[in-house]
Each structure stands twice: as C-alpha cells, then as structure tokens.
Amino acid sequence: MLFDTDILIWVQRGSQKAAALIDKTSEKYISIQTYMELLQGAFNKQQHQFAKNFLTSYDFIILPLTENIGHRASVYIEEYTLSSSLRTGDAIIAATAVENNLTLASGNAKHFKNIQDLKLKIFHP
User: Fold this and answer.
1) Distance CA 38, CA 9 (A)
2) Contacts of 89 (CB under 8 A, 6+ apart)
3) Is the pLDDT reported for residue 109 higher than 90?
4) Is 100 helix (H, G, I), strand (E, B) or coil?
5) Counting C-beta atoms within 10 Å of the first and last residue's C-beta, which end of the chain has fewer, N or C?
6) pTM (2 d.p.)
7) Angstrom distance (rounded) from CA 115 to CA 76
C-alpha cells in the first residue's frame, strides 16, 4: 500500500487509528513526493531527523519519480485540475500508486476520488 502524506502526519500527531492502519500493512510504500513533503514541513534539522527516523522505524520503502510516473501525473493534471483542484504533488502521488499497482491510502478523498484508474482506500481519522 502507498501512503499519502496526511496519514503519516496523523501518526506523528498521535493518531492510533492511523498507526494501526500502517502497522497492519505488510508492505509500506511512500512516493518520493511524500518524503519531500515531510521534510519540507520540518522547521529544523531535528525535525528532519525525526521524519527520517519515523520512516525507517515503520520500514517504509520510498518509490522514486520515474518517467512514466511523471507522464501519468501530467495527464492527471490535464484531466483533473479544473474539475477536482488536483495539485501537482497529489498527481505525482496518485501516479506513483497507479504505476506501481498499489492502493493509495489517504484521508483526502476530494483530491483523488475522480481518478479513474486509482485504487483508493479512504482513511477517516
């Protein structure tokens, strides 16, 4: 399963429900986009290190941005930005899930629900 950034933030804020979702998943993935969003949200080097340790402790595998993911994300932007307010980061995360044949777990149904070829698991905090 590929986890959206919001689920990781829920865990870092102490959500047992989000932590349980991650714990019960055997293969845990995030997009490089999610990794960058987590680091971008840090205010100092200690928070950077905390984010890195967090990902390591849960055994997340970070999936890279590939040419196919980039192409698919650009198609998603063309198709869904006007109707669903899809942003670049979310398009990259969705494309990463689809290109790797993974289900995306996210609490942001609004951003992802219209993407036809995306397998989506909605998280309710």
Assistant:
1) 8
2) 5, 33, 37
3) no
4) coil
5) C
6) 0.94
7) 8
